[in-house]
Amino acid sequence: MMSEKLFLLPGDGIGTEIMAEVVKLIEWLNAAGKTDFTYESGLVGGCAYDACGEAISEADMAKALAADAVIFGAVGGPKWDDVPYEQRPEAGLLRLRKDLQLFANLRPAICYPALADASALKRELVEGLDILIVRELTGGVYFGEPKEITELGNGQKRAVDTQVYESYEIDRICRVAFDLARTRGKLVHSADKKNVMKSGVLWDEVAHQVARDYTDVTFEHILADNCAMQLVRNPKQFDVIVTDNLFGDILSDAAAMLTGSLGMLPSASLGAPDPSTGKRKALYEPVHGSAPDIAGKGVANPIAMVASFAMALRYSFNMVELADQVEAAIAGVLGDGLRSADIMQDGCRQVGTEEMGAAIIAKLSA
Ligand code: NAD
Fold this sequence. Notes:
Elements: E1 4-11, H1 14-31, E2 37-41, H2 46-52, H3 58-66, E3 69-74, H4 89-99, E4 104-110, H5 123-126, E5 130-136, E6 144-151, E7 157-162, H6 167-182, E8 187-192, H7 198-211, E9 218-223, H8 224-233, E10 240-243, H9 245-257, E11 266-273, E12 280-286, H10 303-315, H11 320-335, E13 338-339, E14 349-350, H12 353-365
Parallel strand pairs: 1-2, 1-3, 3-12, 5-10, 8-9, 8-10, 13-14
Antiparallel strand pairs: 4-5, 4-11, 6-7, 11-12
Bound molecules: nicotinamide-adenine-dinucleotide.
């Protein structure tokens, strides 16, 4: 087995506490002979600023670029609210996304049966839900130029944001979505607003072109507003949804909340495959932040972090069976009634970060 290189960036606040549970899991997987990971840790966010005056050092950036996968905790906290803008904790994450050219953001929305009653929707609508939203992350209206507010001289101002997509950006994100759909339910919905936006017309044209290369995957177009409605009306009709940066931002948050707490939500960001090795740069992180309100108390839910690591097993290392096992272990401990404080329900047993992490490993070894 070839050794795979992980670079761990726990970050600030609960980031260090939840990453500690991933480290235990990596150690356990290695000891059980299931993996052969080597790993190193670095600093990102406020702790990096304290150590070197930047949100991530050049040395740690180089390690991130050389790793097979970056596992990221969370950054930020009140201590760093007043640091200069360029050095603020989030700048570390943005630098990683930029330098690793992570253009594809994957946000799964999986409903664990034991938590189906915690959803805002009825159990029958969400039980068994397994959606993957593939959001374009480096283009679109958040980056397009011009982006400005101008004074019109008559007491009025004018604000402009520019939605720009080139066909290659749409092509590569659609290919990620179709490749992933092949490993799942073989259904892709592409969401845009081609009825009112030229970028939507191009998006749909390119999506259809890509679909022709994937005749084994069913392709559907959907208007983004209808997609939002369908997500809360009948979410189980979806498998993979591919969409642009803006719509993806909104649709992925809506889909995430179908399944309950922030402490449960993993994500992955992928770059382009290396032409010679086929490997993609990738960063895996929970959706939540550093939760300063509970940091240091040992009560943070480690599931989003562990599930992010499971995504690394699946998408960076093609260890699909192992990823399934980790996800089943999470479902198992929830099924046994273990809950961290953020997902506590009547009749369940409340556990802290370490006990939840240990229970997941115990399930895996059972
Ligand atoms: P947050 O996600 O940190 O916390 C929101 C709420 O959810 C808090 O009440 C928190 O206790 C709870 N929560 C979050 N994760 C949890 C977990 N794993 N277990 C139990 N409860 C959990 O968002 P915020 O409070 O808006 O931001 C706090 C800090 O995190 C800020 O500095 C913000 O800039 C930063 N932040 C970082 C990231 C990131 O690193 N990617 C993302 C969002 C926010």
